[in-house]
């Protein structure tokens, strides 16, 4: 087997910035689809959506607030650089999810198709963010730490949290919406688990 001898190179500030804008924009668009369909998702985004549905609050503000307690953990475990990047990504998501609805709406959106595409887009956006040293906060921080420390894939850690979140959602949302939401979350986490390989992508 031929092994690559190419040395890892660090991302530039511009490369990080475009990845964060791209990743958060894709995830924010997926969140627009989620809200339009009445779905939820996993991790702190799902928790934020559930709270925003129940209390009729703007998701962007709820998502930003829900992530605040996790920054200290991120600082202690992953360092200040990671926390700053995560803070920027969470802030961008919060802004984009408030702005995007004024720019686009959906006349027709099939729930099965929507759930699958939401999973694909969320995974794509998250991988761009993760590969440039950031995250969308919350459970993502813990999942990345567990992956780095113990080798257990971040996607599977997130899947476990999602299972708990969806169990709670089943008691407060229509079961068909929870089922579609679960489909999207499973698709996203499986794509991340299969494609996010630090042994294949090591530039930071």
From TrEMBL:
Q: Which InterPro entries match?
A: UPF0750_membrane (IPR051461), YitT (IPR003740)
| The protein, known as | Putative 5xTM membrane YitT family protein
Keywords carried by this UniProt record = Cell membrane, Membrane, Transmembrane, Transmembrane helix
- List, alphabetically, the Pfam families matched: YitT_membrane
Transmembrane portions of the chain: 20-41, 47-70, 82-106, 112-130, 177-194
Coiled coil regions, renumbered to chain: none
GO cellular component: a single term: plasma membrane
Signal peptide start and end residues = none
Localization (cell): Cell membrane
The membrane topology noted for this protein in its Swiss-Prot or TrEMBL record is: Multi-pass membrane protein
């Amino acid at each position: 087997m031929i092994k690559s001898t190419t040395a890892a190179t660090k991302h530039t500030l511009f490369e990080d910035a475009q990845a964060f804008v791209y990743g958060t924009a894709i995830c924010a668009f997926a969140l627009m689809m989620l809200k339009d369909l009445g779905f939820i998702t996993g991790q702190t985004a799902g928790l934020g959506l559930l709270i925003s549905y129940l209390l009729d609050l703007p998701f962007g503000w709820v998502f930003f607030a829900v992530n605040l307690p996790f920054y200290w953990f991120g600082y202690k475990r992953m360092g200040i650089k990671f926390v700053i990047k995560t803070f920027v990504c969470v802030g961008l998501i919060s802004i984009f999810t408030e702005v995007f609805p004024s720019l686009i709406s959906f006349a027709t959106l099939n729930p099965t198709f929507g759930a699958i595409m939401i999973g694909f887009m969320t995974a794509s956006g998250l991988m761009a963010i993760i590969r440039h040293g950031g995250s969308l906060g919350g459970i993502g921080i813990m999942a990345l730490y567990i992956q780095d420390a113990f080798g257990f894939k971040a996607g599977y850690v997130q899947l476990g949290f999602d299972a708990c979140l969806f169990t709670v959602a089943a008691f407060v949302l229509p079961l068909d919406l929870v089922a579609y939401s679960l489909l999207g979350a499973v698709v996203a986490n499986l794509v991340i688990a299969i494609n996010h390989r630090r042994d294949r992508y090591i530039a930071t």
